[in-house]
Specification:
The protein is mostly beta strands and about 140 residues long. It has one domain (about 5-115): Distorted Sandwich (Deoxyuridine 5'-Triphosphate Nucleotidohydrolase, Chain A). About 5% of the residues lie in helices and about 35% in strands. It contains 1 helix and 12 strands. The strands form 4 sheets. Strands 2-3-12-7-9 form a 5-stranded antiparallel β-sheet, with no helix packed on it. A 3-stranded antiparallel β-sheet has the order 5-10-8. The chain starts with a strand and ends in a 28-residue tail after the last strand.
Length: about 140
């Protein structure tokens, strides 16, 4: 699938896959930034994308950055709609006890492109019965 990428900064890098079968393409910081303990910073990638119609870009944490540096997207998963043409920015939150630094060129998140469905929501007086019913958190057990 072809995805057009526009560089908005001379320091921008195109998303890149780390291996042949990687689902997520790495997103890179186009600027350096410091993120204090418990703080969030908007990190520029310096790119905008043109996703194909019927797809969505999902921005996820990089496991190494989250586990080793305590940095992960503040909104857990970012959503890039296929009609969005602005810069991709990643709100990185520092969950650790020390200030962390992101350097220009660092891999800061990963972008997964996936198809999606647009639902036709219809108000209903009743919903069909299921075994689970209205059971919520933990209702299916722990084992």
């Amino acid at each position: 699938m072809k995805v057009n990428v526009k560089k908005l900064s001379e320091f921008a890098k195109l998303p890149a896959y780390g291996s042949e079968y990687a689902a997520g393409a790495d997103l890179y910081a186009s600027e350096s930034a410091e993120i204090g303990s418990g703080k969030t910073a908007f990190i520029h990638t310096g790119i905008a994308v043109e996703l194909p119609a019927g797809t969505v870009g999902l921005v996820y944490a990089r496991s190494g950055l989250a586990c080793k540096q305590d940095l992960a997207p503040a909104n857990k998963v970012g959503v890039i709609d296929c009609d969005y043409r602005g810069e991709i920015m990643v709100a990185l939150h520092n969950h650790g006890g020390e200030t962390r630094r992101v350097e220009r060129g660092d891999r800061i998140a990963q972008l997964v492109i996936a198809p999606y469905y647009t639902a036709q929501f219809a108000e209903a007086e009743e919903l069909s019965e299921t075994v689970r019913g209205a059971g919520g958190f933990g209702s299916t057990g722990s084992r």
